[in-house]
Amino acid sequence: MGDSDSRNRHEVHRHFLVALGLMKSPYISELEPNQVISGIFLVHHKDIRQKKSGDPYLSLTLADRTGDLDAKMWDNAAEVLDAFERDDFVRVKGLYQIFQNRPQLTVHKIAPVPEAEVEFGDYFPASTRNRDEMFRELQSWIASMTNPHLKSLLEAVFADEAIALAYRTAPAAKSIHHAWIGGLIEHVLSLCHLAKFTAAHYADIDFDLLLSGVILHDIGKIYELTYARGFNYTTEGQLLGHIMIGMRIVEEKLRAVPDFPAPLRDLLFHMILSHHGELAFGSPKVPVFAEALLLHHLDNLDSKMEHLRGLIDKDRLVNGVWTGYSPALERSVLKKRRFLDPAPESSQEPSAAKPQPSASKPAREPQPSPQPSASPFASKLQEALGHER
Asked: Are residues 136 and 235 located together in one domain of the fold?
C-alpha cells in the first residue's frame, strides 16, 4: 500500500471516530484562518473585562494538548460570565482569524461541558515517549552505578510506588520547559546523557554522584506541581518549593539505607540545594564543588534549549522570522528555518478582521496604534507600553 493510500485510510478512520464523538476535533494546531470552528477546549485563563460602553466581555486562553489560543467574547458575555471557570471544559463556536499578526478566536457561543464527555488525554500535552519505557531507562541508569550507597538510595526512592508513578507522570515545570505529562522524567533522562558525556570529558568527576544529583535534583516537583487539571502549584509547592520538598523526600529515604556516609549525604544535599546556581534564582546555596556546578549548568542548558524549541514551535506571530519576546530568555529568538528558507508572507488577515462594531462598543479590545513588529527591540517596547501578549 502506498503512502497516500495509508494517509487516506488514516483520515477516513479519524473522521469516522470524530463523527462518533470518540476523538476530539478540531485541535488548535489544525485550525485554519477565516473559518468558523466548533470544538471543545480547556479554559486555561478567564478574565472578565469592560468595554468602553461599560458592558463586560471575556478574555480567554483556550487550550488542548497541541497548544493554546487567545479568545475574546465581545457579545452577550454577560449571559455566560458565571457559566464556567478556569480549568473547566467548554464547547466553543466562533470565528478563527489572524488579528495583528496573531491568531485569535472571536467567540460567538460558549457553554460548559461535563468531564464525562471528554477524553483528558486530548487536553493535556504529554511526552511523545512512552512513560513506562522512560522509567525502565531510568532504572537502567541506576543499575549501572557502582557506588553501593548511592545506588541503594536511588533504589529505595523508586521502590516507593507512589513516587515512581508521580516521577514518570509529572511535568518538569509549570510552563517554562518540559511542561507536559512525563516532562520531568524526559528532562532527567536528557540530563543523564549529558552527564555521561561531560563526566568523561572533565577530569576527576564522580559520575555516580553527578548521576544521583541529576536524578534527584527535581524530585520535589512531583509534589510541587499539580497536573490533574492544567499545570499549577500545589499549596505545598507554594509554601515550600521543590528544592525543600526534594530534600525532605531524600532525607526520608536515607533512613532505609544503613551506614550511608555522612559526607556523601552532605554532598548530595548540597547538589539539590544549589542546582539553580544562584541565590537570586531560588537556591539557598551556590555550587561549591565540580559535580554540583556541572549539574547546575547541565540543568540550565537542557531547560533553556527546550524552552527555545518550544518558543519557536508555539510562537503566535504568523509572519516574520522573530518570535515574540521571552521573559525567561530575556530576548526574542530567531526562527532559523524560516530565516534560511523564507516562505511568502501570509495574507490571511482579512481587511475586515474586526467584526462590525455597534455604536456603543469597540469591535476589539483597545490596542496600541502601531502595528506589532517582530524585532526584539519593538517587542520589548510593546511590552513596556502594555501591549497584550
From this structure: yes
User: Considering the entire predicted model, what is its pTM?
Assistant: 0.73
Domain membership of residue 280 as a residue range: 131-311
Q: Residues 83, 112: contact at Cβ < 8 Å? A: yes
> Of 311, 329, 361, which residue is a domain's last?
311
Alpha carbons within 13 A on the beta-carbon side of 2: 3
Tell whether 111 and 144 lie within a shared domain.
Answer: no
Report pLDDT digits (tens) over 37-76. Answer: 999 999 989 999 999 999 999 999 998 888 889 999 999 9
Which CATH number fits the domain that encloses residue 296? 1.10.3210
Which cell numbers in the block locate residue 79? 449571559
Q: Which of 242, 293, 245 is nearest to 267 (CA)?
A: 293
Nearest to 162 by CA among 271, 294, 252, 235: 252
Quick: pLDDT tens for 248-304.
999 999 998 989 999 999 999 999 999 998 888 888 999 999 999 999 999 999 999
∠ CA 209-251-286 to the nearest 5 degrees? 55
